[in-house]
Request: fold
Amino acid sequence: MTQARPEPTRTDARNNRARILAAALAAFAESTEVSLTAIAKRAGVGIGTLYRHFPNREALIFALYQHQIGELIDLAPTLLRANPPLDALRLWCAEVARYAQRKFGAAEVIHAATNGGLDDEYYRPFVAAIAQLLSAGAEDGSLKPGLDPEDVLLQLSVLWRIDPATGGAARIDRILDLIIDGLRASTH
Reply:
């Protein structure tokens, strides 16, 4: 797969890239079938500008993935500073679910681009974010001690399979309740 080009150094090029990514995120949220031409138009740039930053659809989708995964990783400590650990975990999982809904249909591209996840530079930091949330919850007694963050990631991976067009939000809430309930420390 052809990767997106590195971050540009010129301000106008960085601004164009940011506008393209924002337009793509909004467009893909509406339909996974949106054309690159429509994304370029929505971003207010020419199609040539889009292709200078992202040589193909897969490169654009992968760049969105990288940006959003980075935001999710950074969110874990922020939520822990502002909330009790159990609440922080639930809020973080809800954000993961929102992300999963936005990327529904792009999983195959990301899976292929990262060699089935094996080459994903964000895997370890993502697992570390989960570990941070679990550790804080174990420390305050709200979560079971000794939980494996990779096991929790596997539980969360079901969120990528929920079709937003078929009652996804309600199903996500129910599944997140099941996941969190299973991680919660026993009150007996």
